[in-house]
Amino acid sequence: MRYHNITKDDMLNGDGLRVVLWVAGCSHCCKGCQNPMTWDPNGGLEFDEAAKAEIFAQLDKPYIEGITFSGGDPLHRANRDEVEALMAEIKEKYPNKTIWLYTGDRWESIMHETLFKYVDVLVDGEFQINKKDATLMWKGSSNQRVIDVQATLAQKDIAVLVLHCGDYDDIPMGRETASASKNIIQFNVSSCGIKRNACSV
């Protein structure tokens, strides 16, 4: 696995202050992507023990709420196995830290992947420039979804999504799902953060 950057004290890619690993490699190549330099799986730097130690040093800090995997796409074939192994190590070492994952894949096509037992929140779907909205919570376009993975996996039918939060932070909670598909369950209001994803820039 290769990566481009490790962002520290990040407020734009998940709830609270986070460390963000920006991996190399993405096959979605979305028009208007903010990080096209990360598409090449051979770009960036090798993810080595020094890079892992840099992440762990951040997770050691009590005010860091967790790690976000972004890129690039953490689920690109060049990344998936090592991302899962790193997630497993993080969950064992830091059980109270949250793991967020951004991918261009849709939940319905990846929901049986074993790594999701480690993921707390998933932001799924390709960025679609015609649906770009700079006011969205944690995502860049309205087709994307911010999914509470563990609550979703606890459902009898895991194709029925439980959302981590709604689309916006400035309208009454619940309005976003009032006319939603039957395959989306009301999100947990208390879990919703107050910051937006960097993709909205």
Lay out the secondary structure.
Layout: E1 2-10, E2 17-23, E3 45-46, H1 49-59, E4 64-70, H2 80-93, E5 98-102, H3 107-110, E6 121-124, E7 145-148, H4 149-153, E8 161-162, E9 184-185
Parallel strand pairs: 2-4, 4-5, 5-6, 8-9
Antiparallel strand pairs: 1-2, 1-3, 6-7
User: Globular, elongated, flat, extended or rod-shaped: what is the shape?
Assistant: globular
Poorly predicted runs of 5 or more residues: 170-180, 187-201
Radius of gyration based on Cα positions? 16 Å
Tally of alpha and pi helices: 4
End-to-end distance: 27 Å
Q: Beta-strand percentage? A: 15-25%
Secondary-structure element string: EEEHEHEHEEHEE
What topology, given as strand order, has the largest sheet?
A: 3-1-2-4-5-6-7
**What portion of residues is helical?**
10-25%
Derived from helix and strand composition plus strand pairing, the structural class reads alpha/beta
Largest sheet: 7 strands, mixed
Q: Quaternary status of these chains?
A: single chain
| Integer average pLDDT | 86
**Total strands:** 9
